[in-house]
Automatic annotation (TrEMBL):
Record keywords: GTP-binding, Nucleotide-binding
Residue numbers binding GTP: G27, N81, K82, I83, D84
SUPFAM superfamilies per UniProt: P-loop containing nucleoside triphosphate hydrolases
One of the record's GO molecular function terms: GTP binding
InterPro entries per the UniProt record, alphabetical: P-loop_NTPase (IPR027417), Small_GTPase_ARF/SAR (IPR006689)
Gene3D superfamilies registered for this protein in UniProt: P-loop containing nucleotide triphosphate hydrolases
Keyword GTP-binding: yes
Protein's name according to its UniProt entry: ARL16 protein
Pfam families membership: Arf
Species this protein is from: Rhodinocichla rosea
């Protein structure tokens, strides 16, 4: 199916190998995101890499999430999505626009970045591998 922008909240269960529930909250739901932080074990933050007009608001939302106390030690995966579109900005461009080097150096949580395409599946294996690693049971 063709991906559509998320405007509400969706729950999806994955087996990694244990069952993990993924809660997807659309960008317009930003004001209520904090009500879900206490339940969060890992965070996937998706950015539309094909939409330069959204970069500044996405960056502000990311900084807000990273500064939330309940998420101070939660591992974060920033996904620069829609790399299948001809107008997408490369990982190098997105890192520069987001000043990711500064963000990572100031953040309390570990941050990883990947390029993805929800449409053609590019990067999906790396996302699942990151999730497995981030959600690994402590010894």
């Amino acid at each position: 199916p063709v991906p559509v922008p998320q405007v509400g909240t969706n729950l999806t269960d994955l087996r990694l190998p244990r069952r993990v529930t993924v809660r997807e909250l659309g960008g317009c739901m930003g004001p209520i995101w904090p009500s879900y932080y206490s339940e969060c074990s890992a965070l996937l933050f998706v950015v539309d890499a094909s939409n330069p007009t959204q970069v500044s608001s996405s960056c502000i939302q990311l900084l807000s999430v990273l500064s939330a106390a309940p998420l101070a030690s939660v591992p974060v995966l920033v996904l620069f999505n829609k790399i299948d579109l001809p107008c997408y900005m490369s990982l190098v461009e997105m890192k520069s626009l987001f000043r990711m080097q500064d963000v990572v150096s100031c953040a309390t949580q570990p941050i990883t970045m990947l390029e993805t395409s929800a449409r053609d599946g590019t990067g999906l294996a790396e996302v699942l591998q990151w999730l497995r690693s981030a959600l690994r049971e402590p010894c």
